[in-house]
């Protein structure tokens, strides 16, 4: 694959891998770091808090959500602590907004020019048509 080219994936697969399974949470004044730890236990996802943000990890969070995609849950609870999650392969890295923007550019580089028009993904070639009459 050429450098800088993004692989073409099925949108359903992207959704499944990027935002995770739905989760339900209900917390009253619980520190963000404890919620992140419980989400790791509940989902099996890799979630890491930037070590430079330990103080913000102690921010008390009060929230109740039912059947929300993991990434959206992370976006909301991290916003409450003035942080932002960044998906990096199979890790959700919770860091500052500035650092998240820097990392997102590195993880998901944007092309310099306009995006090419999306077209159908080619499937397997059709079998050649059989002509003539079969011989006995």
Describe the structure.
The protein has 136 residues and is α+β, with helices and mostly antiparallel strands. It has one domain (11-107): Phage tail protein beta-alpha-beta fold, CATH 3.55.50.30. It contains 5 helices and 5 strands, in the order αβαβαβαββα. The strands form 2 sheets. It has a 3-stranded mixed β-sheet. The chain has a two-stranded antiparallel ribbon with strand order 1-3. The longest helix is centred in the N-terminal third of the chain and has 12 residues, at 32-43. It is globular.
Q: Got a strand count?
A: 5
Broad shape:
globular
Structurally, the number of domains stands at 1
Helical run tally? 5
Task: Give a quick account of the main beta sheet: strands, pairing sense, barrel closure.
Answer: 3 strands, mixed
Query: How are the strands ordered across the major sheet?
Result: 2-5-4
**SSE order, one letter for each helix or strand:** HEHEHEHEEH
Write down the Rg: 22 Å
Q: What are the segments in which pLDDT stays under 50 over at least 5 consecutive residues?
A: 5-10, 113-129
Rounded mean pLDDT is 77
Which percent range fits the helix content? 25-40%
Strand percentage? 25-35%
Distance between the termini: 49 Å
| Class inferred from helices and paired strands | alpha+beta
**CATH architecture descriptor text:** 3-Layer(bab) Sandwich
- Which fold name is given in CATH as the topology? Phage tail protein beta-alpha-beta fold
Query: What is the name of the CATH class?
Result: Alpha Beta
């Amino acid at each position: 694959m050429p450098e800088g080219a993004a692989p073409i994936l099925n949108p359903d697969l992207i959704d499944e891998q990027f935002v995770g399974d739905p989760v339900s949470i209900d917390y009253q004044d619980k520190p963000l770091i404890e919620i992140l730890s419980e989400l790791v236990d509940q989902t099996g996802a890799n979630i890491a808090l930037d070590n430079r943000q330990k103080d913000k990890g102690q921010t008390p969070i009060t929230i109740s959500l039912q059947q929300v995609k993991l990434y959206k849950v992370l976006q909301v609870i991290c916003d409450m602590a003035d942080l932002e999650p960044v998906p990096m392969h199979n890790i959700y890295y919770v860091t500052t907004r500035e650092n998240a923007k820097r990392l997102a550019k590195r993880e998901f580089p944007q092309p310099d020019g306009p995006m090419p028009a999306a077209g159908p993904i080619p499937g397997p070639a059709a079998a050649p048509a059989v002509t003539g009459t079969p011989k006995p």
